[in-house]
Write a structure and sequence with these properties.
395 residues; 44% helix; TIM Barrel; alpha/beta; eight-stranded parallel β-barrel; single chain
Length: 395
């Protein structure tokens, strides 16, 4: 049996655009229609209406924290014009979590932007950080007393790569230079937001919150142990996994390492004893490799910062596989803790089935199944098994 600390945080995550529905002022909303995306986000899960019931489910599953995001485009649908109604909505959302004993982990940017911001170049704009900080100040001033954890930016590496290098997401750029430019601007935005958030808490005589980003990390593995492959693994790990975090550490603008982990990435050509073809996969074809989580966590040990697993999950129609995935990753997590890695908590992705960006509604990540015709929620057996771990701190 594995035991976790009494103060360990357990929960699940959502992001506003993927679950709320009708985020019509977001760049994604406009882009979906412009390119005729096969599956439009539309009403999504109608979480904007049903958040209280969804939080009841999370409470019933013994979660003690919940990660969610705020939709910038709702709060500031036109440049400089903030919606008091939407700010009040998100205040009610946060209070609903706290009333149920769920500690809020609030993400300020989860891939989507207001349309007006996109039209002026979004994160390529030299003044992007100024626009972002104006939004951050409004939100944090409203919510400061209620939020112990802030995540400024979700997966800045994924956002920069998918939107500006690979051309998969809006604005579908394919430029290494632009991807680097965006990454640089995101770093600057986080550093300034970090200090702004702390200043707001200080002015209000509040204890400082813990602030970070959610960094997507992949376990890079050489297909063959050749020197070229090992060098490639080292470089990918350094620039994809660590570069952003190391810049924040250098500027003393990070309180914990927020980590999202799903799968490994195979580097180079040739076979290996862990040939990816023999590994189990999720419904999008991503390999399942719990050892990768352990390896990454051990690699973070030298930074002397606590780690918070802010996303870890699987899309699958096989719920038994979902539980296996959770159980095996928690075992890797525990091994890392036993070897000296300080871990604050584990947040599963995601609480609900949701709109999985350009993949539409096909991938099912949820602990809770969503019927997209009736919007009925059904708790999966994997969620019940995970709830026992949340309740007892034992696996």
């Amino acid at each position: 049996m594995i035991e976790f600390p009494k103060e360990f945080l357990w929960g699940a995550a959502t992001s506003a655009y993927q679950v709320e529905g009708n985020n019509m002022f977001s760049d994604w909303w406009e882009w979906e229609k412009r390119i005729s995306l096969k599956h439009l986000s539309g009403l999504a899960c109608r979480h904007y209406e049903f958040y209280a019931q969804d939080f009841d489910l999370a409470k019933g599953l013994n979660h003690n924290c919940h990660r969610l995001s705020i939709e910038w485009a709702r709060v500031e649908p036109e440049e400089g014009k903030f919606s008091g109604e939407e700010l009040e909505h998100y205040r009610r959302v946060i209070l609903a979590l706290k009333e149920r004993g769920l500690r809020p982990i609030v993400t300020l940017h989860h891939f989507t932007n207001p349309i007006w911001f996109a039209k002026i170049g979004a994160w390529r704009n030299r003044k992007a950080d100024k626009y972002f900080l104006r939004y951050v100040e409004k939100v944090v001033n409203i919510l400061a007393g209620e939020v112990p954890f802030w995540v400024t930016i979700n997966e800045p590496n994924v956002y920069a790569y998918h939107s500006y290098l690979l051309g998969l997401w809006p604005p579908q750029g394919k430029s290494f230079f632009r991807a680097r430019q965006v990454t640089h601007n995101l770093v600057n935005a986080h550093i300034q937001a970090y200090h702004l958030i702390r200043d707001i808490y200080k002015k209000n005589n509040l204890s400082y919150p813990k602030i970070s980003i959610a960094q997507n990390m992949q376990a890079f593995i050489p297909r063959l142990p050749s020197l070229a492959n090992k060098i490639a693994v080292y470089l990918k790990h350094k620039f994809y996994n660590l570069e952003f975090i190391e810049k924040l550490i250098a500027h003393q603008a990070i309180d914990f390492i927020g980590m999202n982990y799903y799968s490994p990435s195979w580097v180079g050509k040739g076979g290996s004893k862990d040939d990816p073809s023999v590994l189990r996969k999720n419904s999008m074809g991503w390999d399942i490799y719990p050892q990768g989580l352990y390896d990454l966590l051990m690699g973070l040990k030298n930074y002397n910062l606590p780690v918070f697993i802010l996303e870890n999950g699987i899309c699958t129609d096989n719920d038994a596989l979902r539980w296996d995935y959770i159980k095996e990753h928690l075992e890797s997590l525990s091994r890392a803790m036993q070897n000296g890695v300080k871990i604050l908590g584990y947040v599963y992705w995601s609480l609900l089935d949701n709109f999985e960006w350009d993949k539409g509604f096909g991938p099912r990540f949820g602990l809770v199944e969503v019927d997209y015709h009736t919007y009925q929620r059904t708790i999966r057996e994997s969620a019940r098994k995970f709830s026992e771990v949340c309740l007892t701190n034992k696996l």
